[in-house]
Amino acid sequence: MKVPHNITVLLLLKDRSNFTQRWLEVHNDLGFSLPIHIADGSLTYQNSNIIHKFLNSKPVLNIDYKFYGKDINLEKFYQKIYEAVRCISTDYVILADNDDFLIEESIMKGAENFRNNEDLIAVSGPAYDTTICNTKPEHDQTWGVLSNPINQYPASDRVENNALSRLQSFLVNRKSSYVWSAIHKRKIFLETCKDILKINPIDFRFLTHSIILFTLARGKVSGSSPCMTIHQDNPGESAGKKLAQIGTWHDWIQTDNWFSSYKKMILKLTDIILENENHKREELKRNIEFMYQGLIGELILRITHPYYLHNIYKKGETINKSDPIFNTFIKIKTYISNKEFKKKERFQRNKTRRMLSKLLRAFKN
How many helices (H) does the chain have, and how many strands (E)? Predict the structure, then answer.
């Protein structure tokens, strides 16, 4: 069996039903053929209703849907991820949210790297944040103002033989795509999910940092996929909203339980590396702390120091219009725009009907 067809997309859901509807329709329209396992943890039944109605329409998409119980807290959310990864039978898995648009051709090209390098445990690629139709272009991001139409978060290889070197390679990079959006070897990623359950990160920043660092500690990561995701940035939605409440990086490190969660993450990271490499524990732990603290320190500097503030909000790199990724972006944007237009048109028709109905009742009276 070819590697690309041995991949399952794990779509994690918690409400945002309008995004779910859009995700299903767009990927169906694109003819996306990789199997999709939907792990639903929504607090309402809207997603469930949308998915069952969609499945009854005999779509192109190959969907396996399961409701894992309501994500009433982060621990329940982490349990859902672990259980979903465990029940998937393919050798590789990709995490996705319902504001991520996946390009199958890019995934397949990235997956080919597993054949050529048995040491790889994940293949990542650039993520493209885009306004699509809903997010304002002036939204300030950590890495700069969204360019029009696409801002790239590049990915790099982390293929050093030493785990500490891979971590350093990641932490010194200012611009980098999350390893969250990567093709993972499922069995190894399952161990990371188990570790996440044990340390129970207090928020999504610690969750994404833990996934990245634990993955790099366990093996080599390639950044060779042309594109992992076209992501619609939605700062006012779900995780983005919670991060906005936390505030700046300086605010974040002062939140309740930050330090205890930090220590759990560092200790687990130390344990993972010591499973496969020989180091003096305290020296290794201190090296990891030093690098991670340096990353947080730079992030704080970037939002406070005039030099960083002057340079931080610049346009990102735009993708070449002849690139297939750009063409896919245009297809998605056009599809969503047409859907938005139809909704507006439908709303206007309904509004007109309501007005005529009122006039008719007034005339009869």
Answer: 13, 11
Q: Is 33 left (phi over 0), alpha (psi -120 to 50) or beta?
A: alpha
**Cα-Cα-Cα-Cα dihedral of 315, 316, 322, 324, to 10°?**
-140
Buried-state track 101-130, b at ≥16 Cβ within 10 A, e below 16 = bbbbebbbbbbebbeeeeebbbbbbbbbbb
Token pair recorded at residue 353: 């009907």
CB-based contact 90:186 (threshold 8 Å): yes
Number of residues that make up the chain: 365
Which residues are paired to 101 by β-bridges? 230
Pairing of strands 100-101, 120-124: unpaired
* Residue corresponding to tokens 């990353």: 295
d(CA 19, CA 98): 6
Tell me, what DSSP letter sits at residue 320?
P
Q: Work out the number of other CB atoms within 10 angstroms of the CB of residue 97.
A: 21
Contact 291, 171 (CB under 8 A): yes
pLDDT digits (tens, 9 = 90+) for 1-57: 344 469 999 999 988 888 899 899 999 999 999 999 999 999 999 999 999 999 999
